[in-house]
Amino acid sequence: MHPDKGAAEAIHVALATGRRLDLYGIVQDQGYFDREVLPHVDGERIRYLGPVGGEQRLRALGKARALLHLINFDEPFGLSVIEAMACGTPVIAIGRGSMPELITPETGILVKSAGEAITALGEIDGIARAACRHHVEAHFSVEAMADKYIALYERVLS
Predict the structure, then answer these.
(1) Average pLDDT taken over every residue of the chain
(2) Which residues of 9-30 are buried (b: 16+ CB within 10 A; e: fewer)?
(3) Tell me: the pLDDT tens digits for 100-120?
(4) Is-contact 58 84, C-beta < 8 A?
(5) pLDDT of residue 94
(6) DSSP 86-148
(7) Could you tell me which of 72, 102, 88 has the C-alpha nearest to residue 134?
(8) CA dihedral 111, 100, 64, 123 (to 10 degrees)
(9) Residue 38 and residue 18: Cα distance in Å, rounded?
(10) pTM (two decimals)
(11) What is the DSSP letter of 36?
């Protein structure tokens, strides 16, 4: 939980749409968490479940209707975005940093604000979960990444 990661924005989207929100992650900024997140956590509609890993993380990502990735910085990669899509979960993300390179119209929706994320949430069911998984297999699997590295090395050497 850190201002850059967009938890407050995700809470705003959940409250505006009447949806339940599960928040996961370590608290990196206690003041932010106490001011912007904790007052909204009620254990039912807004739940903070702490950091999760392994099977629990895969279950959480796989069961989600969407991953809200409403970042406030130019994230250089976005592993949680890839993990969500690998589980078949579409992503709604602020179109900053690497997000336009990771998310396609078949895998999620890029937005400019939490307000646009509210609208996008109403459209997310039009994204096929299988398309999200396929995109990750085609572009971010070990095999795909190895092929890209080999192609890069060959280009550098020629």
Answers:
(1) 96
(2) bbbbbbeeeeeebebbbebebe
(3) 999 999 999 999 999 999 999
(4) no
(5) 98
(6) HTT--EEEES-TTHHHH--TTTEEEESSHHHHHHHHTTGGGS-HHHHHHHHHHHHSHHHHHHH
(7) 88
(8) 40
(9) 18
(10) 0.91
(11) I
Which whole number is the average pLDDT over 7-24? 97
Q: Which tokens sit at 140?
A: 């971010």
Split at pLDDT 50, 70, 90, the class of 142 is confident
Place of tokens 């749409």: 17
The 3-state DSSP class for residue 153 equals helix
pLDDT digits (tens, 9 = 90+) for 36-55: 999 999 999 999 999 999 99
CA proximity to 50, closest of 64, 35, 63, 33: 33
CB atoms within 10 A of CB 84: 26
Q: List the structure tokens of 39.
A: 């007052």
